[in-house]
Amino acid sequence: MSKIKVVHYINQFFANIGGEEKADYPVTLRKGEVVGPGMAFASSFGDEAEIIATIVCGDSYFNENIDKTKAEILSLVKDLSPDVFVAGPAFNAGRYGVACATLAAAVQEELGIPSVTGMYEENPGADMFKDKVYIISTKNNAAGMRDAVKKIVPLALKLAKGEKIGASIEEGYMPGGRRVNFFEEKRGSERAVEMLIKKLEDEKFITEFPMPDFDRVEPNPAVLDLAHTKVALVTSGGIVPKGNPDHIESSSASHYGEYDITGVDDLTESTYETAHGGYDPVYANEDADRVLPVDVLRDMEREGVIGSLHNKFYTTTGNGTAVASAKAFAAEFAAKLTEDGVGAVILTST
Asked: Are the CB atoms for 145 and 43 separated by under 8 Å?
């Protein structure tokens, strides 16, 4: 009996090519090679399946050339004719997650080859594609690799064999709107009482009907004396010094930038630009003040409307950036702003 053929997709980091400095790595086919996390997959597949090829692509290269790169990878996968396509896992890496989910969905839809990927539930790729392809829920970083592989492999083998796929709670994939009937050992009333008792005793339990969790933020009191308040600018519009020195990603940002504007009255075309993808950057690049209004705030500073404009601004890109990442960025620079005596922040977007 022949082994199940698997094609595996990974990014430049998991291929041991490099980190962000190699994120522009182009599509590369490694036929017959098992790379990075593929070794854990190969071990877990045992004699049932083998990875016949690994496809590698840098995160920035994929996300900045989605249509071209997707077509190139689809062509490679078609020629390889695998029984199943496995991408990732991506954990909480936003651009990697988008790439994995985009490719898994495309391979499944356009080539008719079953596909599976894995990532953290707050990865933007999960929200975008969990109703289109099987996405195994993983931990938020690569420390969860062993657990991810342990859940991805059985599902990949089932998909390759054309076996019936159970409910998300059984298989470990993220609920995507599919309803699957199955028999529980205990009837509903008994399960409900058991959950209630666990909840009352502060024990861990898993609800069978999760409700949406909306993050509500109470607004701070109004600033009563702007004329004596230091005001700072923060933006998710991706405004950066010319050349994007910290290489902030155009989408699914993994970090933010902190830049000094001491003595700067105007963000000119020759000194600032936007790193943001997903919108036409022409007008922002012509005059970055349209996104980050340093010029107007300087006028207000001179007129005494505000006490002063803080000498630093913080910036990232909101395009596809995971909520968890955005919260972490904000917590970090909010502490810096507080320490610097900033009393109000103007947050701008695109």
From this structure: no
